[in-house]
Amino acid sequence: MFDEPVHLLTPAQEYRPAGGAALEQVAIATGLALVLAAILVGLGYGHRTGRLPLLDRLGALAERSPLTRGLPIWVALPSALALVSLVTALLGMYWDISLHISRGRDEGPLANIAHYPILFGLFGIFGAGILAIMLPRSERPGPAAIRISDDWYAPVGGVLLAGSGLYALLGFPLDDVWHRIFGQDVTLWGPTHLMLLGGAGLSLVAMTVLEREGALAAGDAQVSPVGQFIRRGMTMGGLLIGLSVFQAEFDFGVPQFRMVHQPLLIALAAGCALVAARWWLGRGGALFAVGFYIVVRGGVSVVVGGVIGELWAAVPLYLAEALLVELVAAYLAGDRRSRPLAFGVVSGLAIGTVGFACEYAWSGLVMPLPWTPDMVVEGVLMACAGGVAGGVAGALLGMGLTGRLRGPALGGSAAGGADGRRAVVPGVLFAGSVALLAVALTNGLATTVPEGVRAELTVAGIAPISADSAQVRFTPASAVDDPAWLQLTGWQGGDLHLDRLEPTGDGAWRTTRPLPLGGNWKLLVRLHDGRTMTAVPLYLAADPALNAPELPAEASATRDAVHEQLILQRELKQGVPGWVWGAASLLVLLCTLALLAALAWGVGRVSGSSGHGSQTARETAPPAG
């Protein structure tokens, strides 16, 4: 493929499967899941029949916590479990990404220690939802509750929380099926990987619905205002974390997608989480949410990079975005009670412009791939799209959590009348924000691989495990013009090697430090300029599982620039019909849209029930400006 001589495979080359997991590991994982599910069902059955007081005792402890004091047991205990589980899964996720970047594929899913906190964390989210469903025993858990049987009602937030956790858990077995069909897609943005991330991140929306139901059932007189502010701020900070995990490839410096995706995703997360936080919590809500985000997200980076000793992941700051949301809220204080959507749109535009400028400066300080002038114009447009889409969604979420999405009464008809119109408009706006995001993502995915581009590679000081330097000269020279990035990337050899190439002044570019060779390393020169994304392989280790021979580093060689995926995702199977991949991706997309629709329905349901609860005017009115 690269028109170069190759070395034969050696027996010493480490063998790692490139398809699905070994069947014995699948059986062990399935058995473990069944055991945990049986324990969960047993606890719930024992509680509902009164034969097992364990959950009552644990619930009593949760109810006495300063953060959950006054909330019903079916909110206090599941919320505590879900929060711990989410942090556990987050730690495992960044640990797992670090391992894949530095070491490549797993020998098997059970051979990767980082998979265990992910699995237990996701199961904990699912279990928290099941507990919220099982715990109400002698009362109806709020006016929005869903009837299961004659004397059993489940809080809608618990149902959504269990559904989000189950959706994320299904990503694990489906990921194995995906690998068997298509090979291992070594990217965070693989469809089944997005299920894992999306289910966990969106479970925070379910948690806000559950918390709202608890406040409605308990009444404000029973809930500590300080504890409520802290609890809700932590939940919104968690939502910001959950929406930010999709940026992880940029955090580590190995994105396989265009740079403009990063400002889009940052603005989307900020718009949604911070607008909702400011509306729900009131003054200082956005800043508190960002503070919680920095502590947890930064703490995970410290644990993974500093304590465990794996790769460090940069942390987008979001502080400027929080200040912008607070300022917009103060400016619109006079109108915000009647115009929450204007608050969301203006905040989104501020995030997409001023926020973009602040994150641009921050990227130059901490990001492994700093933002460059190459992506400024399109980056601002993408950030504005993400900020507005997120701002509208955040405003709708905040309105729902404060009882402002007044649709038809529970069980009533939405046809005709003002209630029907009020029920339709939020759905249209939410669908519009999702459509705007889809357009922006589609634009970001549009890339080109130029034909006829070649690179002259010169490697000096080649030794068995390293080389002193490398130089690359592209033909034609016009292929490189103020790129978003031009760097040497080395990964999967036990570490990550990133080296931004510098121009030599004669049309060539060179490395700035020695480069690793040998072992399992994969080294390539990556070029991203506008919509162009291409790469030139410098050294590729032999891969017996793929029957792929070694591509050696040569003192002098000329190689074609090719599609990055051919190098970064060597594991992908060739020859699989395109319609199979399209159909599988479409199925995952439809499941994701179903989850989003269910969450939107749940927010609308709990908002529509606000008039039936015992909350005071402070709970239903938007926070003071």
Word description of this protein:
With 625 residues, this protein is of the alpha+beta class. It has three domains: 22-223, no CATH class; 238-410 and 417-449 and 603-625, no CATH class; 454-562, Immunoglobulin-like (Sandwich), CATH 2.60.40. It is 55% helix and 10% strand. It is built from 17 helices and 13 strands. The strands form four sheets. Strands 8-9-5-3-13 form a five-stranded antiparallel β-sheet, with no helix packed on it. It has a four-stranded antiparallel β-sheet with strand order 7-6-11-12. A two-stranded antiparallel sheet has the order 1-2. Helix 3 (73-103) runs antiparallel to helix 6 and helix 5 (156-182) runs antiparallel to helix 6 (191-218).
Kindly estimate the percentage of residues that lie in beta strands according to DSSP.
5-15%
Cα distance spanning the termini: 62 Å
Low-confidence stretches: 1-13, 407-420, 612-625
Number of domains: 3
Q: Which strand order spans the largest sheet, edge to edge or round the barrel? A: 8-9-5-3-13
- Can you count the helices? 17
> What overall geometry do the principal axes of the alpha carbons give?
globular
Sketch the topology as an H/E string, one letter per element.
HHHHEEHHHHHHHHHHEEEEEEEEEEEHHH
Oligomer: single chain
User: Main beta sheet, described?
Assistant: 5 strands, antiparallel
User: What is the helix content?
Assistant: 55-70%
Q: What would the average pLDDT be, to the nearest integer?
A: 87
Rg over C-alpha atoms, rounded to the nearest angstrom: 26 Å
